[in-house]
Amino acid sequence: MAGTSRSLVAGFTGRACILGAVPIARKEAAMPKRNGPTRRAMLQGTALAGAAAALPLTGRAQSIPKYGTTKFDYEVVRTEEEWRARLSEREYGILRAGGTELPKSDPKWSDYSAGSYHCRGCELPLYSSDWRAPLSHGWVFFYHADTDAVLTGLDRGNPYRGDAPQMGGDADLDPKRTLIEVHCRRCGSHLGHIVYLDGNLVHCINGTSLGFTGAA
Fold this sequence. Notes:
Elements: E1 5-7, H1 39-43, H2 47-54, H3 80-86, H4 89-95, E2 115-119, E3 125-128, E4 140-142, E5 150-155, E6 179-184, E7 190-197, E8 200-205, E9 210-214
Antiparallel strand pairs: 1-5, 2-3, 2-9, 4-8, 5-6, 6-7, 7-8
Enzyme class: oxidoreductase
GO molecular function, one term: peptide-methionine (R)-S-oxide reductase activity
Domain MsrB: 80-215
């Protein structure tokens, strides 16, 4: 698994939840745009960026075709047509194109019901409600992921949003400006980022990326 690291129960967590996140925008399908600073601009120079820089830097997986060049053999592989048939436009924009939902746009951010969370792309169990972090910033926060459930990678910026220049390789990345992204270990779908927020190192996850099964 060159360029990829596993996240254990005490390990790292999720991507698209960043203060000042911007709505998803793609060339193929126009999505509503939000005025003001971009997601990345809001992060740079903050404690969140410092936390990301302190974590191990790993290569971005190829399963999401808009990102990186590092090859990794995922258990679940689908064509673009199959992904689009399986997911809604909103889900595709986040899980497969690496977008970020607007804060408080998915109801799971404030629902602390007991149960488990799974990947919307392949149903792999990812998180437990026992690990929810009670933060009120509008995304779904966890202290930990399930063992071997997620992988981490470098977030080089989404070429469909144009919020950061595209860089040629890991050697070009500025650790102070690079975010740690979290994606599903089984299908490579984007989940969120690792952030340092309100004194906690947490997985900041898009609710759209998750399915939920309530406790029996």
